[in-house]
Amino acid sequence: MIVFLSPSKTFTPEKTAGISEPIFKHKNRELFLKLMALDSMVLKERLSISDKLWTQVLTYYQEPTNLAMAVKRYGGIVYKQLEAVSFLKEHTLYILDAFYGLVRSTDAIMKYRLDFSFDRKLHEFWQKDVHDYLVTHHKDELCIDLSSQEFAFLIPKDLNCYKIEFALSDRKIPNTTLKIMRGKMANYLLSHSLKRLDELKTLVLDGFTYSSELSSEKLLVFVK
After folding, report:
1. CA 3 from chain center: how many Å?
2. How far apart are CA 25 and CA 199, in angstroms?
3. Do residues 108 and 22 touch, judged by C-beta distance below 8 A?
């Protein structure tokens, strides 16, 4: 089973070395140089961040060799739910990303800040490479998409992929709860190595259960 997640905008001080290089290392380097060629104030404005955050982000790009294992480097809510058992299962967890295109859990990455909203051309920059890689390596595997909507276009339509969403029966689900459940679901799937969709549909996770009424052919909705 292949699991897709979104990247995190926050990072840990983790120094654990990655055991693999990014899949599109050379293309990432090309993008890095393009970003660094921009005037710093232009870059700040296009990233739409505050002066305080810009001071921090600027240090990211000034230290491109400060690398660490991706799944331990990301520090967002989703990644806090992942346990060590998920880390070293090579090629089972992918992070869809605007800076690296596609990140494996074990890849050595730097800290960075870049969203697809930065430039619509980033869609074109990454889509074909990511598509070709995933179709070549995972055409016949069961794939689960736990990423946010921003990254959905990177997943090839001809993959055997199912989107998982979470909902509350009585109110809109808080964004924090949504991120926690995405992380917990990813951790469960990676830890238990599920191979069939029917196994997933019987799962009860923190009170969330599969709803056949709310689900559709390629969308699995878990409700609490």
Report:
1. 9
2. 36
3. yes
Q: Helices then strands (H, E): number in the chain?
A: 8, 10
Convert the pLDDT of each residue in 200-212 to its tens digit: 999 999 999 999 9
Has residue 135 got a pLDDT over 90?
A: yes
Is 139 in a helix, a strand, or coil?
coil
Hey, what amino acid is at 158? D
Instruction: Give, rounded to a whole angstrom, the gap between the first and last alpha carbons of the chain.
Output: 25
Q: Is 52 exposed, middle or buried (0-12, 13-18, 19+ CB in 10 A)?
A: exposed
Contact call for residues 208 and 181 (beta carbons, < 8 A)? yes
The residue with tokens 């992070």 is 95
φ, ψ for residue 11, nearest 5 deg: -130, 155
109 near 67, Cβ under 8 Å? yes
